[in-house]
Design goal:
Length: about 120
């Protein structure tokens, strides 16, 4: 089972930036999906934020498009999420995930808190 180790996150003021990292314990097949999800306070489900799809293209939710950038370092089995122009509504637990369905394995989550 692939293990995903997350780092980054924290607290910043609105307008600030943060970068999340996710290191996989082994090589992730490039045909698999890797991405970021988040679950805000009171939300029952996790929202897909950004991902690399099976075609290698990047996908973003409308709520973060233009502000967040997902990237990866295949040599280091690492996925990144650069978050700029952060808003209070971006406050959430962020999860790295991946696999054939993009939800087969998960990181433990990292908290991002944006103050106004």
């Amino acid at each position: 089972q692939v293990q995903l180790a997350q780092s980054g996150g924290g607290s910043v003021q609105a307008g600030g930036s943060l970068r999340l990292s996710c290191v996989a314990s082994e090589y992730i097949d490039s045909a698999y999906c890797m991405g970021w999800f988040r679950q805000g306070p009171g939300d029952e489900e996790r929202e897909g934020v950004a991902s690399f799809g099976y075609d290698g293209a990047t996908h973003y939710s409308d709520s973060v498009k233009g502000r967040f950038t997902v990237s990866q370092d295949n040599a280091k089995n690492t996925l990144f999420l650069q978050m700029n122009s952060l808003k209070p509504e971006d406050t959430a637990m962020y999860y790295c995930a991946g696999g054939e369905t993009c939800k087969d394995y998960w990181g433990k989550g990292t908290l991002v808190t944006i103050s106004s």
